[in-house]
């Protein structure tokens, strides 16, 4: 019966779905997946939500697990993030089949205390709280929840920006397995996140115009990002012609072992983005230009690099003063 009400269809490689709600509202959405069965499940879940809400005025039956499934299906690459899935499995023991309307401030505070008692840092606790927040926000946006309970994060010490020196980059390059070298080099030349690099398709690259782009549904900010490709990035792309092996997680065992052998300590894949941004600042790129190049929607994201610009300017002024004395 439901298969007659909900229809799925393809646009390019992505499945979409459409249906008419009991109140005659036409819904058309991207399932953001290349799997038709996942698209059907997502469509059925959303249709049932509309039916319950409009016919019964009832949102009380939806559970945390339903909301997690809905959130994961929004962006298929989320299912490839092992750290994220580990966090969701940890939360499942506390929230699992809990109804969304029963997830309140007090329950969330209990989860927060439990995580703190385990001895982890505030940053790790906040990652759990933010995971709860984004799943509940997704449920709210799809009509599974009337309101989102307040979630207060813990204070975190200001993190230093970690980037590679040229010497560290050479050490890392020597230790990297061959299949990771172009990915890491591309990150250093574009500032892109791991998932944006590993999911990049030929249809998203224009070699003649020296540009690439990330679709809005693949971006962390949900806004399309245009990337200017320098010569090094273009060369890396050209060298991938004829290679068809897909790599979903460049931060896995091979990466971690290379970082360890290179003696880089707590260096993470995302720090390659910091390296790209830091080098731009030290080369004199203005903050507003860096914000545009990096596809960041908020200026606050870029301001953490401002002190580097000041240091660069101070060094330049000191050098100018020295030249004047000579």
UniProtKB/TrEMBL annotation:
Domain Tyr recombinase: 159-318
Pfam families (alphabetical): Phage_integrase
Designated name of the protein: Tyr recombinase domain-containing protein
Family that this chain belongs to: Belongs to the 'phage' integrase family.
Sample GO molecular function, one term: DNA binding
Gene Ontology biological process terms from the UniProt entry: DNA integration; DNA recombination
Keyword line: DNA recombination, DNA-binding
Residue ranges that the Swiss-Prot or TrEMBL entry lists as coiled coil: none
Presence of the UniProt keyword Disulfide bond in the record: no
Source species, domain of life: Eukaryota
């Amino acid at each position: 019966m439901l298969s007659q009400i909900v229809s799925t269809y393809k646009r390019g490689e992505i499945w979409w779905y459409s249906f008419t709600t009991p109140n005659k509202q036409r819904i058309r959405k991207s399932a953001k997946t290349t799997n038709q069965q996942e698209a059907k499940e997502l469509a059925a879940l959303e249709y049932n939500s509309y039916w319950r809400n409009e016919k019964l005025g009832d949102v009380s039956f939806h559970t945390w697990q339903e909301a997690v499934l809905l959130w994961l299906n929004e962006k298929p690459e989320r299912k490839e993030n092992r750290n994220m899935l580990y966090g969701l499995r940890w939360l499942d023991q506390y929230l699992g089949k809990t109804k969304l309307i029963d997830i309140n401030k007090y329950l969330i505070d209990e989860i927060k205390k439990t995580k703190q008692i385990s001895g982890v840092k505030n940053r790790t606790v906040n990652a759990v709280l933010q995971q709860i927040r984004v799943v509940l926000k997704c449920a709210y946006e799809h009509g599974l929840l009337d309101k989102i309970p307040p979630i207060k994060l813990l204070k975190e010490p200001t993190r230093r920006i970690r980037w590679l020196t040229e010497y560290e980059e050479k050490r890392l390059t020597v230790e990297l397995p061959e299949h990771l070298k172009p990915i890491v080099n591309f990150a250093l030349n574009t500032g892109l996140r791991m998932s944006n690099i590993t999911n990049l398709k030929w249809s998203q690259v224009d070699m003649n115009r020296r540009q690439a782009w990330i679709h809005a549904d693949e971006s962390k900010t949900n806004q399309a990002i245009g990337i200017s490709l320098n010569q090094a990035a273009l060369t890396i792309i050209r060298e991938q012609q004829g290679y068809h092996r897909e790599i979903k997680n460049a931060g896995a065992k091979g990466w971690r072992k290379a970082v360890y052998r290179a003696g880089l300590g707590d260096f993470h894949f995302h720090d390659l983005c910091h390296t790209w941004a830091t080098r731009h600042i030290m080369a004199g790129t203005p903050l507003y230009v860096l914000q545009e190049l990096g596809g960041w929607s908020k200026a606050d994201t870029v301001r953490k690099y401002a002190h580097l610009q000041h240091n660069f300017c101070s060094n330049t002024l000191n050098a100018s003063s020295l030249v004047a004395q000579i």
